[in-house]
Amino acid sequence: MPPDPEALKSRDPWAALRATTNARIGLARVGDAMALGDVLAFQSAHALARDAVHAALDTTALASQIAGPVITVRSAVPDRETYLRRPDQGRRLHPDCASLLPRGDYDAVFVIADGLSATAVATHAVPMLEAILARLPMLRVAPVVIATQARVAIGDEIGERLGARLCAIMIGERPGLSVANSLGIYLTHHPRIGCRDSARNCISNIHTKGGLSYAAAADTLAWLMREALHRKLTGVGLKEAAGDLIGDRS
Q1: Within a domain: residue 4?
Q2: Which residues are bridge partners to 147 per DSSP?
Q3: pLDDT in tens, 11-65
Q4: Which of 52, 125, 132, 220 would staple 175 via disulfide (CB 3.0–4.6 Å)?
Q5: How far is CA 154 from CA 170, 171, 191, in A?
Q6: String of b and e for 202-237 (b: at least 16 CB within 10 Å)?
Q7: Contacts of the segment 43-49: beta carbons below 8 A, 24+ positions apart
Q8: Residue 89's closest CA among 29, 150, 28?
C-alpha cells in the first residue's frame, strides 16, 4: 500500500512553515544533495528573473492600453548593458526627449518606467494606473509618460519639466527568486533634479501572486497623494497611519 500523503505531511515539521512563505525553507534532500524537483524549480525561477531584467518593454503596446495622451521618452542610457552598469545614466533624460515634455499646470504626472523588470510593467502598470485614477478624479493629471532604460530618479526631471506638483513613477522592481514581475511605485512632491531618496514614499511588491493587490496599493497611493498635496511634502515626513488611511490632517 502506498504511503498516505497526509500522513507524510504530518511527519514533515517544515510543512506548516512552507505554507506561509515563498522562501525556500526545509527543502527536501536526496543523499547530500537537494531533491531534483527543488533544483529544477530554483533554476526556473532564476531564468525568469534573468529574462525579466533583460526583456525590452513594448512601449507601443503599452501606450495603446492607456486612455488619454501618452508621451514616450528614454533615458541617457544607450543600451541595456550600460543600463545595468551605469545607474546614473538611467536617472537622466536623453537630451532629445526634453522638448517632448511641455510645461503645464498639473497636480501630478504618472510615469511608467521599465526599471529592472519590463515584465512587471507590461503586466501591472495599466490596471494599477486605472485603479489610482479612479480614486483621484479631481486631480489635474499630465499626460502619462512611458520611460525606457529608466531608474526611479528619472521621474524627478520629467516632473520638473512638466511642472507637476507630484510625480508617481511605476517601475519594475528587481526580480527575486520568488517573483520576477513585482511593481513598485515611488511618489515625490516637488520633483526636481537632485531629489534625495528620503524625499520619496515607496509602495512595493505589487503583483497578483501573493503580493500587494491593485486595490490596496491604489488606496495607499491615493491617501499619500492627497496628503502630499495638502502638506506639501513626501518622504520621511509623510507616514501613513497604520490601519487608518484617513490620517491626521492637522
Answers
A1: no
A2: 73, 113
A3: 777 778 877 777 777 787 888 888 888 878 778 877 887 877 878 899 999 999 9
A4: 52
A5: 11, 11, 10
A6: ebeebbeeebbebeebbbbbbbbbbbbbeeeebbee
A7: 45/177, 45/178, 45/180, 46/177, 48/175, 48/180, 49/175, 49/176, 49/177, 49/180
A8: 150
What value does the mean pLDDT of the chain take?
Answer: 88
Give which of 120, 119, 72 is closest to 94, Cα–Cα: 72
| Nine-digit cell string for 84 | 545595468
Q: How many residues does the chain have?
A: 250
| Closest among 184, 172, 173 to 217, alpha carbons compared | 184
CATH, residue 128: 3.40.50.11240
Containing domain of residue 209, as a range? 57-228
Q: Which residues pair with 72 in a beta bridge?
A: 146
Q: What is the pLDDT of residues 83-96, one digit of tens each?
A: 999 999 999 999 99
> Looking at residue 97, what is its pLDDT?
96
Compute the distance between CA of residue 210 and CA of residue 9 in angstroms, rounded to an integer: 23
C-alpha grid cell for residue 140?
Answer: 489635474
Is residue 157 one of the residues assigned to a domain?
yes
- Please state the φ and ψ torsions of residue 136, each to the nearest 5 degrees: -130, 60
Residue 18 CB neighbour total at 10 angstroms: 14
Q: Which helix (H) or strand (E) holds 6?
A: helix 5-10
Phi-psi region at 236: left, alpha or beta (left = phi > 0; alpha = psi -120 to 50):
alpha
Stretch (H or E) spanning 188: strand 183-189
